[in-house]
Amino acid sequence: MGQEIFYITFLPFTYWIINPYVSRRLIIMWPVVMYIGQVMKDLLKWPRPLSPPVVKLEKKTNAEYGMPSTHAMAATAISFTFVAVTANRYKYPLELGLSGAFLFSALVCLSRIYTGMHTVLDVIVGSLISLFLTAVACPTWDFVDHLMLTNPLCPAFCITVPLFLCYNYPKLDYYSPTRADTTTILGAAAGAIIGFWVNNRYVSNASSEDITYSVSSNISEIILLVLAKFLVGIGVLMVTRQIAKTIACKSLCSWHKVSSSDVVAMQQIKIEVPYKFITYSSIGLSATVFVPLLYIFLGLN
């Protein structure tokens, strides 16, 4: 919960299965919260908990700074945004939704403490920042959504602004994966938003705004339909990821005359940023345009 496998499954799931309206608002909040959190880490430069006394069960993000916890920020923003958006569209007890959002974000926060990646202060500050950003952004969601769907400059904006932010990411004295992770997130969000724009402008029938099922359908039929859509969609994203990753890697390595096995060369900004951005923007675009079109072709819509 909070790693790439979560984002590449849950966020597309909300678009394919639940509601594109809900998904778009999650996609709005996710990159904003994560970019702010990642930049704050590299500006504050607060170290992660020392080992000993803690036992570190995760090594992947150990090179990053600790304050604030971006896992806590993402979990809080996604869960509470989901409740805020769905509360007025679906009939369910608000208390239940808030409890679920609190439980999910609390589990992610506790997991970061348990694995030795963050202090209690890191996750509390991260959660509070996300709650503040969600509350501030909530009144703007409809306006931003309208611009995202209708403004002719949307695709250009979604390419130039994220790339500008990634190329001007705060520089550190040593290599940290924060820039690569940030580029991954901004790239995926940019691809998805361009896909929303393309659907609204050219493929309006590719996905309905509200997912509905026939009254005559029984629970087993609905579950089978949902499972089929999910498996087909994830399969397409895995193939897209591999193809885009291979093409981007080989093209950039050939252009800059470096080997893909040269770790130091691959970490250079001139290779890392376009490599990550191309790969994950392709995934975002595929999830929002090609997968819904495939559903129509296969009769899964």
From TrEMBL:
Keywords: Membrane, Transmembrane, Transmembrane helix. GO terms for cellular component: endoplasmic reticulum membrane. Residues 24-138 form the Phosphatidic acid phosphatase type 2/haloperoxidase domain. This is Sphingosine-1-phosphate phosphatase 2. One of its GO terms (molecular function) is sphingosine-1-phosphate phosphatase activity. InterPro entries: PAP2/HPO, PAP2/HPO_sf. SUPFAM superfamilies: Acid phosphatase/Vanadium-dependent haloperoxidase. One of its GO terms (biological process) is sphingosine metabolic process. The chain crosses the membrane at residues 5-22, 65-84, 96-114, 121-143, 149-170, 182-199, 219-240, 277-298. It holds the Pfam family PAP2.
